[in-house]
């Protein structure tokens, strides 16, 4: 029997120390590049969005690839690519961790809208607040002292 699967994830990750390095001039090319990384690993980018210090991805990953290996490849390849651009004003580095949440087929449209409205959403909320809200909504236990790892320590 053939394997059938459609695993949809909402992935969130920030720049290291929340540095605002995803500038307007590299944003769209970066999004296209990330889409290519995902396609090259047999995945499908449904939506991408964010602001200067973090990204949201709505994706389907192949069941042959783990979420952790996909996110690792997206981060590594996109940072290397972006830092090779003359338009990159601030070095792009990603935080170590990420948030990932499963999305049911019936919620894809609402998550997509949420991702597309990041600029408006972040007029009143930090990325830290947003991540804590997502963790709570998905009933994921966390300790705020360790939420952003050692990035706040020296």
Q: Give the termini separation.
A: 53 Å
Shape label: globular
Strands, total number: 4
Number of alpha- plus pi-helical segments: 5
Helix content: 25-40%
Strand order of the largest sheet: 2-3-1-4
Given helix and strand content, the structural type is alpha+beta
Mean pLDDT equals 89
C-alpha Rg, in Å?
Answer: 15 Å
H/E series: EHEEHEHHH
Spans of at least 5 consecutive residues whose pLDDT stays below 50 are none
General description of the model:
This protein is of the alpha+beta class and 154 residues long. It has a 4-stranded antiparallel β-sheet, with helices on both faces. It is globular.
Q: Outline of this structure?
A:
By secondary structure, this protein is an alpha+beta fold. The chain has helices spanning 24-40, 67-83, 108-116, 118-121, 127-137; strands at 7-14, 44-51, 54-61, 99-102.
Secondary-structure blueprint of this entry?
Elements (H helix, E strand, L loop, with lengths): L6 E8 L9 H17 L3 E8 L2 E8 L5 H17 L15 E4 L5 H9 L1 H4 L5 H11 L17
Antiparallel strand pairs: 1-3, 1-4, 2-3
Helix pairs in contact: 1-2
